[in-house]
Amino acid sequence: MWSSAGWPRRSRKAALPDRAAPRLPPSIRVIERGWLSANNIVLFDGEEASLVDSGYVAHAPQTLALVREVLQERTLARLLNTHVHSDHVGGNAALAREFGCEIRVPSGSVEALSAWNEDALLLSSADQRGERFAFDALIAPGERWEMGGLEWRAWSAPGHDMDALVFYCEQARLLISGDALWQDGFGILFVELLGEDWDRGKGLAGVRQTLDMIGSLAIDVVIPGHGPAFEDVEAALERAYGRLRAFEEDPARIARNALRGCLTFAMMDLRRMPLADLPDYLARVPLFREANARFLQMGSGALADWLVRDLVRSGALRVEGDWLLAPDSQQRHQLHQLRTGGGFSAPLGGGGGT
Amino acid sequence: MNPPVASPCINVCRMDEQTGLCAGCLRTLDEIASWGQASNARRLEILQHVEQRRLASTLAEGGVA
Asked: Fewer CB within 10 Å: N-end or C-end of chain B?
């Protein structure tokens, strides 16, 4: 199976000069959109296919259409989730309805999912939306299975989500990393913000354990939960360790990172909000309220002012009159940059996103 | 590997049934699905298509066309 996957190890350097992404085995397709929907990774096995992660619920109809486009005549046999946050499982229910696929979730999330605990699933607690789904099987750390003509093994990857998994293929030296490792950073450490007192420090310790684990694997290409697949794992790990150290030295950074990322994420979903409503929103939604209360202790007006200033400056949000808006002209901006010789950059760099 | 041309996705991600294009980024399903593995040349080509569509829809809305 390994050779039939046709991994072009030796020919990588001879690929198209304008190649934008690392080459992947032909049995793997990555559907990459913006940040609100996690990447959808489709892996082919003859007439069948598997899908890793299903995006955000608001995007579910398009996710179905995209998966259908990629599948062509194949059937979707199963859907696996790296972790159960809203941007990774939002299309689960719709995909199961459409394709009748089996759904497998990380074993550690069984309680939150069985009870559909909207706080534990970061739905009500972070003002995110989801659709309840039924799962068919659990994936435990250490479990092995085949998809895309390759053998995969699940590894425990605590930190961003304490029950998260990453999927590793030793023969193709591929890692599906979820939000445990991105090209620039890793997902928000929710347990430090919303966890109980006795959970303090577990997110940080989890990240270190996860980065050490990933560092011990032989990896050529990482397919992250958000952003393009990337090759330079060493550099990504170095950036992630750097961010982890900064968090360890000044835990308030965990909160600032989370507030930026979660407001950007919420605005991608809401699209617009009266600026005057933001202080109340930050005081009402538990994630913002708790992050501020634990680490920053700012007045909600001052917190709103800081967030707006910061996120407008970075281009993550914009203000028009009395409204706070999600960016809607990314593409024009890019073309302008292209014409003026400027470079391209990711819309949400750093440790943003959820 | 060259720096990748960034995606025009603005997280709207909803297909417009009339145009067959995403209401957010004005791409077709194929253009969205293939973006991840597309070369920079192909990405720029898609961005040009998007720009033309945006211009056309702006003109149509304004009644100029």
From this structure: C
Mean pLDDT score of chain A, rounded to an integer? 90
A274 contacts A323 by C-beta, under 8 angstroms? yes
Residue A267, classed as helix, strand or coil, is helix
Q: Using CA atoms, how far apart are residues B13 and B6, in angstroms rounded to an integer? A: 16
**What is the ipTM, given to two decimal places?**
0.93
Which residues on B lie below 8 Å from A29 (Cβ)?
33, 36-37
Which residues sit opposite A76 in a β-bridge?
A: A49
* Of A66, A330, A344, Cβ closest to residue B33: A66
Residue A177 Rama label (left phi>0; alpha psi -120 to 50; beta): alpha
Measure the CA–CA gap between B35 and B43, rounded to whole angstroms.
7
* Residue in A20, A59, A346 nearest the CB of B39: A20
- DSSP, collapsed to helix, strand or coil, labels residue A259 as helix
- pLDDT tens-digit readout, A173-230: 999 999 999 999 999 999 999 988 889 999 999 999 999 999 999 999 999 999 999 9
**Buried b or exposed e, range A124-142, using 16+ CB within 10 angstroms:** bbbbbebeebebeeebebe
- Residue to mutate among B11, B21, B30, B48, with most A CBs inside 10 A, is B11
Whole-angstrom distance, CA of residue A133 vs CA of residue A269: 20
Q: Which of B10, B14, B46, B51 to mutate to test the interface with A (most CBs of A within 10 A)?
A: B10
Count of H helices and E strands in chain A? 12, 14
SS3 for A33-90, per residue?
CCCCCCCEEEEEECCEEEEECCCCHHHHHHHHHHHHHHHCCCEEEEEECCCCCHHHHC
pLDDT of residue A3: 40
pLDDT tens digits, one per residue of B7-59: 899 999 999 999 999 999 999 999 999 999 999 999 999 999 999 999 998 88
| Core vs surface per residue A169-198: b (16+ CB within 10 A) or e | beebebbbbbbbbbbbbbbbbbbbbbbeee
Give the DSSP H or E segment for A193: helix A190-194
Q: Residue A53 — left, alpha, or beta (φ > 0 → left; ψ -120 to 50 → alpha)?
A: left
N-terminal to C-terminal alpha carbon distance within chain A: 35
